[in-house]
Amino acid sequence: RVDWRWMQPRAPAIVVGWKPESGFIADDYHGYSEVTIMYLLALGSPSFAVGPEAWGEWTSTYERTWGHYFGQTYLHFPPLFGHQFTHVWVDFRNIQDDYMRAHGIDYFENSRRATYAQRAYAIDNPLGCKDYGESVWGITASDGPANVTVQQRVYRSYAARGIGGASTYDDCTLAPTAIAGSIPFAPEITIPTLLEMHRRYGQHIYSRYGFLDSFNPSFDYDLPLRHGRRIPGFGWVDNDYLGVDQGPILAMLENYHTELIWRVMRKNPYLRRGLERAGFSGGWLADAQRDKQ
């Protein structure tokens, strides 16, 4: 139903948006991020599909963010959600497009490396955040305490927190979804971290529907807050559950346990078509091709 071609005023890229008052926004979507799924759906559309060259345009800026960060070499996107959201729906294990084929990994492995890099960052703890370490880590887009600067540290309310060169932004706010959304990539480090967070902080950060969105042990100041509450001696904790963060927790847990969402989506002809038109091959895509023959 989506007219993807209409969303290409500067084809082959897909535009960021359109406003009734001013028309198309001046920016197009380029580079690795959570928007990967949108390009795949646009390529696989049965009615208004974009051309295969759209994927080449999308990946044309990848080299700007391929690099080495905290012991890992991977295609970079600062907040972990960018390495998770498309993976909720798409099983990228052992399938590759031209870019990943040339770099010898797949997008699943790329997300595994991004997860390990975040843990290494917390162990290094360059900003001196309270409690950061091997079992306390995980930053992504989430709620935060307030837009305020305290002792030269800039805190924010909602922000896209993440690591990687000049794009790093960290105000010591931790988000359990950053860890839980990466369970399929690295269960050996994510599951122990979630269990340790629950053991250590559960009375403050775990409630009726599971983990609250975020918390910050370093923010223990009696200041006006945009979200949540301050618990003296503990720090700041959110009082919200955000659907955009809770969803990946549940979905990726299910993919880890049963691969339910991946199994369903592997059967979707539009997603398969989008992947194939983007140049993906191997793995379950090859199996699907053999099953047709």
Brief rundown of the structure:
By secondary structure, the chain is α+β, with helices and mostly antiparallel strands.
Notes on the protein architecture:
By secondary structure, the chain is of the alpha+beta class. Helix 1 crosses helix 10. A three-stranded antiparallel sheet has the order 11-13-12, with no helix packed on it. Strands 1-2 form a two-stranded antiparallel sheet. The longest helix is centred in the last third of the chain and has 19 residues. Strand 6 and strand 7 form a beta hairpin. The protein has eleven helices and 13 strands. The protein folds into two domains: 95 residues, no CATH class; 190 residues, Glycosyltransferase (Alpha/alpha barrel), CATH 1.50.10.140. The model has no long low-confidence stretch (mean pLDDT 96).
